[in-house]
Amino acid sequence: MSLEYAKNDWYAVADIFCLRDGPRRTRLLETDITVTGPAEDATVTDDQGNRYPVQLKFDHVWTTLGDSPRPLFDIPEGDEEGRRRVPCGVVRVNCSPLRAVENFLDIAHFPFVHTDILGSEPHTEVSPYKVAIREESDEVWATQVKFFQPQAAKSAGDGIVTDYDYRVPAPTVAVLYKTCPPKPEAQDVIAIFVQPVSETVSDVWPWMALYDDASTFSEMAQFQHEIFVQDRSILENQRPVKLPLDPKMEIPTRADMTSVAYRRWLKKRGAFYGALRDGA
Amino acid sequence: MTAFTLYNYVLSGNCYKIRLMAGILDVKYDTVAVDFYPGFEHRQNHMLALNPAGTLPVMTIGEQVLTDTQAMLAWIALNHDPSGTWYPAADPMLGPLVQQWLAFSGRLTNSAGLAGLHSMLNWPIDGEAARRAAIKDLRELELHLTDRVFEGKTWLVGDHPTIADIACFPYVALSPDAGLDHDGYPAIRNWLYAVRSLPGFVTMPGIHHLHELREGADG
Amino acid sequence: MTTRPVGLTRDLPAGRVMHAQADGKDMVVWRATDGTIAAWDNRCPHRGMALSHGFVRGNRLACLYHGWHYDRSGRCGLIPAHPDLEPPATIHATQYGVVETGGVIWVSADEAPAPDDSDLAPLRSFIVEASEDALRDAQEATSADGAPPAPEASDRVSVLCNPIEPGRTQVTVLTAPGLPLPRLRTLSRWCEAMRRQAEAKETA
Ligand SMILES: N[C@@H](CCC(=O)N[C@@H](CS)C(=O)NCC(=O)O)C(=O)O
Ligand code: FES
Ligand SMILES: [Fe+2]
User: Fold this and answer.
1) Neighbour tally for A34: CB within 10 Å
2) Would C99 disulfide with which of A199, B18, B94, C114, CB 3.0-4.6 Å?
3) Pick the residue with more confidence: A1 or B92?
4) Which residues are CB-neighbours of B1 under 8 A, at least 6 positions away?
């Protein structure tokens, strides 16, 4: 049942670079698939020869295994003039796809996991922020999130208080909007698109759309690799591996309001793939 | 004036050896970020012109190019370590022993290092074979470091940390990210901790700060 | 339940943390700056991170993920995201029994009695990818051949097993105290021989 629900979402299964040297053999929701390029005209097939729908969006090839897929969300900022879009490849993590998303929504770990980059002691306090499940779009949003950061972006010099907005448009996707150091009136956009290989294995595609004229592509991508791989060793060491939805199993604080809303939203939707259900 | 230029990729354990040695000896250098992944820039013509082997790191000192990580460590130590302890090249016993563990570190690149690339970036190699080779290497290192514990010593060779410790450190420290935990390797764990405690130590993703040595939120 | 050997006192100095397994439980074993040792369930109550990746500050163990600090009784005393908050007493890590005798760290999930003190000295702690039975056979086989690196009677070798998973055993080897350095090196190589033999048998 949880698998059936998950099949009707869209998932990133390739980016615009990775099909150049040939097809990508991969796994989505425990189904082996082959993604064949070119990215602009990609095909996705399983080993029985079934062909699945494809769309190219946010520099990634998206597919769905379901018969009545929910529409793929949009990130309109991605197309804004002057932004540089940075698909960062894929990183395999042995964790639940939902744990990967929840970690992306969390700021309290910055001083300990992204030390001297996204946070540093003694600036550990998380101030109150706003969380809502937006009815019209059915998305989780956290806004007015603030955190002191020693080096918020590749383009940032000294420490600044960074403003964040977080958004969950689909169970395995998280998008953040944060202070853009060279362009104070705009926000940088960073997302992770999680390809659920299984309930306990995730292929994570980080993606960014930044205002940054000074850095090379490689510098921007490496900044993201550095941050994400710091999270990887955390994600592989959380127990239980699946995300517990029973509120008694883990202890949230005020800083975890986004995570609480995300878990509640998953439950409400019946998005249980990668989750440990109540009493289970 | 910086001492050298490092063609660098943040997730490469071999590049990290250079950043670590330079951090400890407080040597300033420039970096060129190479799109090792997802771009495989190290295999493109302009990088192959610099290093025909198509590997990272590459180090340039003016016109001179170095393409072997262990040679780069030797260069940094010979040129920027006034104490002379990091690379006791001329010592009739310590010099050869350092060479032996530098060579061992090259094996680690092809065992634990490849296992890591396979687990994390889906490198098209036989991951199980790499992991088996890594376990063999970790056990060999544990045996040696246990001898050192019997002798009351901390480092791989002699009484001081050397470039051999730096060369062996990254892929051993990162092996849990490749699915190879440190549970059965107490001597390795304590040696890793000793390296991480060195003044000037820098981290890489997968190797976190020793927060116990830092100023706490609780003072 | 019994008391299981999970490591050597010499391998866990003050201020350090290690992972242990015994009787199907994942544990964190850590030593405070003042030298006292504790064994807990290896799970941070906050978001389930393995506490064995944590760090010791003074006499508290902190979780690597969000830095929650736990005192020796297992009680949470600091949540860095809310530094002025007094954490509720209900937030605490689950404690197990731990004792040290003869240079060996022993744990138990219940209050099983501590093993008798012995006059033997610890040599090594390591993991064998084989069952305890295979290890015992290998111990016998590699001791019997009489040639180095096999132990001699005067070494008084004793082998303790902690079965951690099917086909995976943690082994602690003890010897007579005060053996000379070359003898320790030789017996350490005998440990390797025993492991090779046990694992070869297991896969055969
Ligand atoms: N012998 C070389 C090997 C360095 C090496 O293997 N580097 C890795 C990155 S850590 C690499 O460039 N691999 C190339 C590839 O796998 O494509 C050295 O020690 O410098
Ligand atoms: S999981 Fe341990 S502090 Fe959050
Ligand atoms: Fe993170």
Assistant:
1) 14
2) C114
3) B92
4) none
Of the options 3.30.420.100, 1.20.1250.20, 1.20.1050.10, 3.50.50.60, the CATH number for the domain spanning B94-199: 1.20.1050.10
CB B116 within 8 A of CB A233: no
Which chain C residue has the Cα nearest residue A245? Answer: C47
Q: Is the pLDDT of residue A12 over 90?
A: yes
Ligand 1 atom closest to Cα of residue B67: 20
Instruction: Name the architecture of domain A77-276.
Output: Alpha-Beta Complex (3.90)
Q: Which residue's CA is the closest to the ligand 2 atom numbered 4?
A: C66
Q: Which residues of B touch A124 (CB under 8 A)?
A: 217
Q: State which residue of chain B sits closest to C183, comparing Cα positions.
A: B150
Domains of chain A, residue spans = 1-72, 77-276
> Parallel, antiparallel, or unpaired: how do β-strands C95-101 and B58-61 relate?
unpaired
Q: How far is CA B25 from the centre of its chain?
A: 15
Nearby residues of C88 by Cβ (< 8 Å), 6 or more positions away = none
CA of A106 to the centre of ligand 2 (A): 11
Burial of A229 per CB tally in 10 Å (0-12, 13-18, 19+): buried
Residues of chain B with CATH 3.40.30.10: 5-80
pLDDT at position B70 is: 98
Single pTM value for the model: 0.97
C8, C16, C52, C57: best to mutate for the B interface, most B CBs within 10 A:
C57
We find that the CATH architecture of domain A1-72 is Single Sheet (2.20)
Task: Name C121's bridge partners.
Answer: C175
Cα–Cα dist A18/A30, whole Å: 21
d(CA A128, CA A257): 9
Question: Which structure tokens are listed for C22?
Answer: 């015994």
Which of the four pLDDT bands, split at 50, 70 and 90, describes residue B217? very low
Q: What are the DSSP E strand ranges found in chain A?
A: 11-15, 24-28, 31-36, 43-46, 51-52, 54-57, 60-63, 84-87, 91-93, 130-134, 139-149, 160-170, 173-179, 187-196, 202-210, 243-244, 275-276
Domain ranges of chain C: 4-108, 121-203
Residue among B6, B14, B118, B174 to mutate when testing ligand 1 (max atoms within 8 A of CB): B14
Q: What is the mean pLDDT of chain C?
A: 95
The predicted model gives B135-155 an average pLDDT of: 98
Ligand 1, atom 17, residue with closest C-alpha: B55
CA of B13, closest atom in ligand 1: 10
User: End-to-end alpha-carbon separation of chain C, Å?
Assistant: 32
Condensed to tens digits (0 to 9), the pLDDT of residues C5-31 reads 999 999 999 999 999 999 999 999 999
Fold classification of C121-203 is Alpha-Beta Plaits (3.30.70)
CATH topology classification for B5-80 = Glutaredoxin (3.40.30)
CB of C80 within 8 Å of a chain A CB? The answer is yes
Q: Determine the pLDDT at residue B216.
A: 52
Q: What is the homologous superfamily of the domain C4-108 according to CATH?
A: Rieske [2Fe-2S] iron-sulphur domain (2.102.10.10)
Helix, strand, coil percentages (3-state) for chain C, rounded to 5, are 20, 35, 40
Q: Do C53 and A233 touch (CB under 8 A)?
A: yes
Say what the pLDDT of residue B218 is.
Answer: 45
